[in-house]
Amino acid sequence: MGVNHSQLNSRYDDQGYFVIRDYFTASEISSLRQVVLKFHELWTQDHKEFYEQEAFNSSLITGSQYLAFDDRVKLFNFISSKKIMHVVESLIPANPAFMNTQLFFNPVNPQQKDFWHRDCQYDHEIEQQKKAILETQVVHLRVPLFDELGMELVPGTHKRWDSEEEFNVRQEEVGRVSSESLSTGKAIALSAGDLLVFSADMIHRGLYGLDRLALDILVFDSAANFVDYVDDDCLPEPAMLDKIDEPSLFLNTIDLKKMG
């Protein structure tokens, strides 16, 4: 695969993210794009008002609401493909589990600005956020379907708390706003075919512009207590499992659900 496990692991451990350029072929991206655009078109019709006023992402792409059986199988096979699993297993060697998918796009409203956040801030108060970043993290694997401005990340914040500047901007304290620039931010432009892997709990923001449409795959370590976040409908139906070449990522989640 061109990049070995220990290199990926040490980069992620140190910085909280890494990028592999041109990881997917044009035909892999083209067939993924075909399925995702079907979902996106139906989802935007169904959530017209929300989409036009404030949306910048959707989730549950692998669910049964918008995609037919065969398209869901295609998605599951991409998510658990050798290329993806090579990367997942370099970060979570024992029992990685599938959590969800999200699709990131440009907001329709041109006034809407991108904003700094840690994913854990939506579930936890400050003290719990501090604890969350020291425990097992959720890993995002971002697959851009078109060339885009990408993401801005604050390297190392998957393991450390905010500086004063970062905290004030992210939490919108002392007159700061979450769309301001951070002196510690690092912008990473992405092209179709690249793979960006980053910690959900590091300080980050998506950058709006160009033809942004990026599929994020979220995975977690089975030892962590995240199974409650998984929507049953996003998992493969029993009849799909024998059509998925390597279903262990999903089976691990299904097993956790049974135990839960």
Word description of this protein:
The protein is globular, with a radius of gyration of 18 Å. By secondary structure, it is of the alpha+beta class. The strands form two sheets. The chain has a six-stranded antiparallel sheet with strand order 1-7-4-9-3-2. A three-stranded antiparallel sheet has the order 6-5-8, with no helix packed on it. Helix content is 34%, strand content 20%. It has a single domain, classed as q2cbj1_9rhob like domain (Jelly Rolls, Sandwich).
CATH topology name: Jelly Rolls
Poorly predicted sequence stretches spanning 5 or more consecutive residues: none
The N- to C-terminal Cα distance equals 35 Å
Average pLDDT rating:
95
Helix content: 25-40%
Name the beta content range: 15-25%
Structural class, please?
alpha+beta
Count the E strands.
Answer: 9
CATH superfamily: q2cbj1_9rhob like domain
Number of domains: 1
| Structural shape | globular
**Cα Rg:** 18 Å
Describe, in short, the structure shown.
By secondary structure, this protein is an alpha+beta fold.
Helices and strands in order:
Layout: H1 5-15, E1 17-20, H2 26-46, H3 48-53, E2 57-59, H4 69-79, H5 82-91, E3 96-105, H6 126-132, E4 139-144, E5 148-153, H7 164-170, E6 186-190, E7 195-199, E8 204-206, E9 213-221, H8 238-241, H9 248-259
Antiparallel strand pairs: 1-7, 2-3, 3-9, 4-7, 4-9, 5-6, 5-8
Helix pairs in contact: 1-5, 2-4
Question: Which key features would you list for this structure?
Answer:
globular, 260 residues, Jelly Rolls, alpha+beta, three-stranded antiparallel β-sheet
